[in-house]
Amino acid sequence: MTGERFAADVAETELADYQRALRLVLRHPLVTATWPDEKALPRVRRFATTLRKDLAEAFGYRLELHGVTARLVRAKDRLDHTQPATSRTGRPFDRQRYAYLALCLAVLGRAGIQITLSELAESVAADAGRITGLGLDPDSGADRRAFVDAVGWIEDRGVLRLADGSSASWASDPGAGEALYDIARDAVFAVFRPARVLQHIESVTGLFDRSFASSGNAERRAAAQAARRAVVESPVVYFDDVAEPVANHLRGATLASDVQRLTGLRVERRAEGVLLVDTTNLSGERFPGSGSVAQMAVLLAVEIGARVTDPDGRKARRLPVPDGHAAHRQRIRDVDAGLPAETFVPVEAEPPPAGQPVDDDGTHRLPFVADSTLRAATGELLRRYGKAFGAQWHADPDRLRAEAVAQLERFDAIIRVPGGVLVRPLIGRYRATVATVKPRATAEPLF
After folding, report:
1. Are 140 and 146 in contact (CB under 8 A)?
2. What gap in Å lies between CA 207 and CA 61, rounded to an integer?
3. Which one of 6, 48, 68, 332 is CB 3.0 to 4.6 Å from 33, fit for a cystine?
4. Taking a C-beta distance cutoff of 8 angstroms, is the pair 69, 81 a contact?
5. What is d(CA 338, CA 203) in angstroms, rounded to the nearest whole number?
6. Same domain assignment for residues 302 and 382
């Protein structure tokens, strides 16, 4: 025994392997025989007992292992729109693809051990035809591509295993191509694991963390779990963005040591908040990253930081921070608008989830940088580092700027507002950075 609160029965010689397994399930909540690779499931099974205990105690998560599948059932505190499902080409799913994905899983749940792509498409089309505004027309190229993207997402995760044929040929011509799949039934039922029966949910908030506090100790435990969740799920956590009990845990020394013990990663604390220094690719997207958009994003971060802190320049105007909780409430309303009222089964009312942040008072202000300044900075950076960016970016600098700004927003470095951006404290981390851009080794595709 180590005397530690977490990984208590893990020998120090095995701690790095344990931390690697825990990081694996945090990044890939679904692990199958082939997803994310063939070595992943044995790593999780090796420490399954300790992982179950620590994930439940530290984060309020539930780790389930069935057959050749491991599933991490997360407790969510709020909607997260920054991690969409993506196609094999990296394009985020739209509403049509999400709908096809859900219908595919429903069909596979009723199927046997094998299914052809045309049979799957026929069943999904029958279900989609009963949903107003959806449908699936095999003669429509757009519908077929959306359907194949959904099937590809399922196939990549080992839920479907190609036994014969090709989905690409079917996507080109359903009459000329076919694919036969083996169905991994353990994986089918592990993909979607709602915390509650969906027919009992009046709002998507019913899927948030439901660890209601009934005592002072329970309240502190719930706040500590919410704080740890925030650190491992968000690129940066600002104290102003969370409830005060959660912020108190973020400020404490115990959280940093707990998270480091669990993940092997260091927590960096500043006056405005904390971040987990990701040196192991825990998150799917890293900052700074590689590629033209990521290079422009970090270059813009340097330029923005220099502009905001330049003592000889014009002082940046400061504007009130938009009410982030209001935006979150609107996102909840948007999701709830799509809930089917005819299948709702009412149950006894329950109190709201513990640990939800209260409304912001709107008095906090951040430096403002106008879109025109960002546009000019992008043009100057393209001229300064011309050879590092492909011809398509020089021909369309506005697209490059928009995608770079979107990446900065995903990492909570800025807040987009009408006419420009508000600069969040994370930008200060890069204000004295000397950027070196590597020249392109090969030409990048236009799309």
Report:
1. no
2. 13
3. 68
4. no
5. 10
6. yes
Amino acid in position 151: V
- Are 63 and 124 contained in the same domain? no
Q: Residues 83-96: pLDDT tens digits?
A: 889 999 889 999 99
Instruction: Say how far apart CA 55 and CA 53 lie, in whole Å.
Output: 6
In the chain, how many domains are there?
3
What is the SS3 assignment for 266?
Answer: strand
Residue range of the domain that includes 126: 95-191
Do 411 and 296 lie in one domain? The reply is: yes
Report the alpha-carbon distance of residue 184 to residue 159 in Å, rounded: 5
Consecutive 10-residue averages of pLDDT for the chain (447 residues): 79 96 95 94 96 96 92 85 86 94 94 93 94 89 92 94 84 79 92 76 77 70 94 91 93 93 94 90 76 90 85 77 79 82 64 42 78 94 88 93 93 92 89 62 42
CATH of the domain at 143: 1.10.10
Looking at the whole model, is its pTM more than 0.85?
no
Classify the C-alpha dihedral 407-409-410-411 as positive or negative. positive
DSSP β-ladder status, 266-269 and 237-238: unpaired
pLDDT at 210: 60
Place of tokens 């002072």: 216
Same domain, 139 and 50: no
Query: Which SS3 state, helix, strand or coil, does residue 314 take?
Result: coil
Task: Give the closest residue to 435 by CA, choosing from 293, 281, 301.
Answer: 301
Which of 191, 217, 243 delimits the end of a domain?
A: 191
Asked if 103 and 158 sit in the same domain, the reply is yes
Q: Which helix (H) or strand (E) holds 263?
A: helix 253-263
**Inside any domain, residue 1:** yes
- What's the rounded Cα separation, in Å, for the pair 304 and 374? 8
> What are the angstrom distances between the C-alpha of 295 and each of 214, 302, 338, 402?
49, 11, 38, 13
The CA distance from 104 to 154, in Å, is: 9
Do 53 and 163 reside in the same domain of the chain?
Answer: no
- The H or E element that residue 367 is part of is strand 365-370
Q: What is the pLDDT of residues 357-371, one digit of tens each?
A: 433 444 578 999 999
**Sheet of 114-116: strands edge to edge?**
114-116, 179-183, 160-165
Please indicate, yes or no, if residue 300 is contained in any of the structural domains.
yes
Query: Is 267 within a domain?
Result: no
Tell me which residue of 257, 308, 273 sits closest to 265, measured CA to CA. 257
Question: Are 58 and 222 a contacting pair, CB within 8 Å?
Answer: no
Strand boundaries in 187-262, DSSP class E: 237-238
pLDDT the model gives residue 312:
66
266 within domain boundaries: no
